[in-house]
């Protein structure tokens, strides 16, 4: 038997290889052609989108000029004739409103035009803005002249509280960490037991992030006042704006908050906003945080007159964790359900590959019959506006009204991109430490070290606390109960049982364990 392969077998093998490479080459050529076609299509769509936006801007300006001329002409013709014409236009507008379908995709066409036009950027100085601002350097913001005096006075009687405007200067120079290298080094390991370095954290806990949603709590104060005046529609509009405003601080925030320990709490007493807040981590598996807040005429989420609004969060996705520019986006439908006259539905538009106008929020307020009585539109990272359907002023081309506008960013930016409000959340003022329970997030050592720029010590403390946290499941199995909240019977929600602020006034924290201390020896041996 001859060793090796025959010449014929070798040629046959070579031919098979050539055929396979030829087939692969043909596939690559087809894929390349498809890619080129897709790129050309995207460029064409982008060009058409730009042309459409320019057309919309020109058309909006032309209509505005025509309506201005029409108003001047009507004014010259006499008041009697003008009143009849206005009445006819109002009737026509109301008839069109009755025919609107809430599920129609074209319902917010004018909203898209408005968001794409230059008027969205240039008209802000004429809009009504929040009655007060948390940064005393900027002073109070202007309010629309026609606003009711009760609404104008919201927040005017709150005391002025000096709060910090920047984080402490770091003690050490921070070293960057690659997430990809972290994943590569831990392949095959139980990732639930891998302690990520504090480089990926921001100096806040999830409990404090819950309170951050209340940065624009003045919207609820104003909603309460509108309800007292009998204006339920404006109350619903302000609640909707508040629900959107909680997403504004997520823009550019790429670091994750610290995961609270079981039983960890956070209190926020902000008399300058008229609110008091308490939160507690009530379950570790699954991770559940309960919170309670009381404001001026409202609490989570009920007004003193019994009107309740309930809503759920939309989907939040984080993109390009490994490669590319890291960013997050919020998308989906938010339904704000009221128990009286009005409810609201808002659509957070998902950001697309070629979207030049991202972060849009579109929606409307519906009455009990499902009729849309007002339109809402804006961006979750910038501002929200509204139009009352059937309002003759809107038919004449007047600008929409501003409900909420995002506060100016901090002048002392760090890589965490914390807002001015978020910078104050972990502040430990002189004398406050002695008044806090041992479970408060401000006393968490790894978080405090990260804020101070003591990165080496922060990593050591984080590892120690995560080892302690692994005892949380056993604590729950042994019958551990939250201190300030109780689980409602037959449901998954938790209710505040009260007593926190009374305990603080007395300095009675005996029932609060030292959760940030060393792990007891008997637990280490488990």
From TrEMBL:
Signal peptide: none annotated. Residues 51-109 are annotated as: Disordered. Keywords: Coiled coil, Lipid transport, Lipid-binding, Transport. One of its GO terms (biological process) is lipid transport. It holds the Pfam family Oxysterol_BP. GO terms for molecular function: sterol binding. GO terms for cellular component: cytosol; membrane. Residues 93-108 have a biased composition (Acidic residues). InterPro entries: OSBP_sf (IPR037239), Oxysterol-bd (IPR000648). It comes from the Eukaryota. May be involved in the transport of sterols. Belongs to the OSBP family. This is OXYSTEROL-BINDING PROTEIN-RELATED. It comes from Salix koriyanagi.
């Amino acid at each position: 038997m001859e060793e090796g392969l025959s010449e014929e077998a070798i040629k046959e093998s070579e031919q098979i290889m050539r055929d396979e490479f030829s087939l692969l080459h043909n596939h690559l050529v087809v894929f390349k052609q498809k890619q080129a076609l897709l790129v050309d299509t995207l460029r064409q769509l982008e060009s058409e989108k730009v042309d459409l936006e320019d057309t919309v801007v020109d058309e909006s300006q032309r209509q505005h000029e025509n309506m201005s001329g029409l108003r001047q002409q009507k004014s010259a013709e006499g008041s009697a004739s003008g009143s009849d014409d206005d009445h006819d236009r109002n009737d026509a507008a109301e008839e069109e409103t009755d025919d609107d379908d809430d599920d129609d995709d074209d319902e917010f066409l004018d909203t898209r035009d408005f968001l794409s036009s230059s008027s969205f950027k240039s008209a802000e100085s004429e809009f009504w803005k929040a009655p007060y601002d948390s940064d005393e350097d900027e002073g109070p913001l202007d309010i629309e002249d026609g606003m009711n005096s009760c609404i104008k006075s919201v927040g005017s009687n709150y005391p002025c509280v000096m709060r910090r405007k920047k984080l402490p200067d770091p003690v050490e120079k921070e070293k960057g960490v690659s997430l990809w290298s972290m994943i590569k080094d831990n392949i095959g390991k139980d990732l639930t037991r891998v302690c990520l370095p504090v480089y990926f954290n921001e100096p806040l806990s999830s409990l404090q992030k819950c309170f951050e949603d209340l940065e624009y709590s003045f919207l609820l104060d104003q909603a309460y006042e509108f309800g007292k005046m009998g204006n339920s529609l404006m109350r619903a509009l302000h609640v909707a704006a508040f629900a959107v405003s909680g997403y504004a601080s997520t823009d550019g925030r790429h670091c994750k908050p610290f995961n609270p320990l079981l039983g960890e709490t956070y209190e926020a007493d902000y008399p300058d906003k008229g609110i008091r807040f308490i939160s507690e981590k009530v379950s570790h598996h699954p991770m559940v945080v309960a919170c309670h807040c009381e404001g001026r005429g409202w609490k989570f989420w009920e007004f003193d007159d019994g009107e309740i609004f309930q809503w759920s969060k939309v989907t939040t996705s984080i993109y390009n964790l490994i490669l590319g520019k890291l960013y997050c986006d919020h998308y989906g439908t938010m339904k704000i359900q009221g128990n009286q006259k009005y409810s609201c539905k808002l659509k957070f538009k998902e950001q697309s590959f070629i979207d030049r106008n991202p972060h849009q929020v579109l929606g409307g307020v519906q009455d009990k019959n499902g009729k849309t009585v007002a339109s809402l539109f804006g961006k979750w990272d910038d501002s929200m506006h509204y139009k009352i359907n059937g309002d003759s002023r809107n038919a004449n081309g007047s600008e929409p009204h501003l409900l909420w506008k995002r506060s100016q960013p901090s002048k002392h930016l760090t890589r965490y991109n914390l807002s001015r409000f978020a910078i104050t959340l972990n502040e430990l003022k002189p004398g406050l430490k002695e008044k806090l329970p041992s479970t408060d997030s401000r006393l968490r050592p790894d978080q405090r070290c990260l804020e101070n720029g003591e990165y080496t010590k922060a990593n050591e403390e984080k590892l120690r606390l995560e080892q302690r946290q692994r005892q949380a499941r056993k604590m729950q199995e042994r019958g551990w109960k939250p201190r300030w909240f109780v689980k409602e019977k037959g449901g998954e929600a938790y209710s505040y049982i009260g007593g926190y602020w009374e305990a603080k006034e007395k300095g009675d924290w005996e029932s609060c364990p030292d959760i940030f201390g060393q792990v007891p020896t008997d637990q280490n041996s488990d």
